Amino acid sequence: MSIIEKAANKLRKSANASTKQPSTNEISTSKEKQAQLSHDDKPAKIIINQTLSPLVPETDQVFIDLDKLSKLGVVTPDQGKTQIAEQFRVIKRPLLTNAFADPKIIKKGNLIMVASSLTGEGKSFCSVNLAMSIASELDHRVLLIDADVARPSIPGILGFGQKKGLLDILLDKKLDISDVMLQTSVDKLTLLTAGEERHSHATELLAGHRMGLLLDELAQRYHDRVVIFDSPPLLLTSEARVLAARMGQIVLVVEAEQTTQQAVKEALKQIESCTSINLIYNKARAFSGKEYYGYGYGYNYS
User: Theoretical Cys-Cys bridge with 110: which of 79, 99, 100, 188, CB 3.0 to 4.6 Å?
Assistant: First the structure.
């Protein structure tokens, strides 16, 4: 007799042993039924229901509505050669090349910070699109971290509530990053929120020793993972400058026809210690009248 047949017989015997008939108010949900099983019965339940994801509890998975995101102009893994999908394919390719280059050339290249000079330039939108595009890669996974600890945007864009995240790890030494990482319904995409509460000493937390250890772990622990940090604006917060000093690559989002040349120059001064600086020219109008995401790459800007 196979393991599955033994498990099924065991469950049938357990059901027959119960003489109480449930009333209309006693009908259990699937989770409640699983809770009623003994400890020894739970593995058998998992074996029978092989269509479930036994390693990822339902409560820990964030469902992402891809149809809704697509209507908002966000790249989704099931998209073909749409304009925005193609643009972010161009944007991500040199970033991925650097992410897994020789560490002697680019240290912690898989840690990528997406920032802007000011608010409203589209950095969070670009962060999500970049993460979604990388999630469609065959050989890489992506962790998207909402590091805009003052004004987190990722939960609002992806449609889920605020949960424990980055600041909670830095404040509570008992928490491990695996305790707060959120699996999603998008294969190869994992999330980490900014945290449940704001903190007056967020800059010091991001500059602290524990943050350094966390970044080292993220850079080294997963050989196939790219980590994207949605950063606060560089010219409005001190947190962004602290975070920039610890990144392998930085993507600066510049809003077309809005961000001044002076603002861009000031932002570049804040991140000049990074050896890999990239530019996304956001919200430019193409000849068709649609938004265009231009891409610039280089090490030195004058």
Answer: 99
CA nearest to 87, candidates 139, 122, 138: 122
pLDDT tens digits along 106-118: 999 999 999 999 9
Backbone φ and ψ for 165, nearest 5 degrees, come out as -160, -135
Distance from C-alpha of 89 to C-alpha of 105, rounded to nearest angstrom: 23
- The Cα–Cα gap between 201 and 295 comes to 34
| Residue labelled with tokens 């994801």 | 53
pLDDT in tens, 191-202: 999 998 788 889
**Count of C-beta atoms within a 10 Å radius of residue 20:** 6
Query: Any residues with CB less than 8 A from the CB of 221 and at least 6 apart, and which?
Result: none
Could you tell me if 45 and 185 lie in one domain? no
With contact defined as beta carbons under 8 Å apart, do 276 and 292 qualify? no
Give the number of residues written for the chain.
302
Range of the domain at 13: 3-55
Indicate whether 8 and 154 sit together in one domain.
no
Of 38, 55, 72, the domain-final residue: 55
How many domains does the chain contain in total? 2
Q: What is the pTM of this model?
A: 0.76
Residue 224 belongs to domain with CATH number: 3.40.50.300
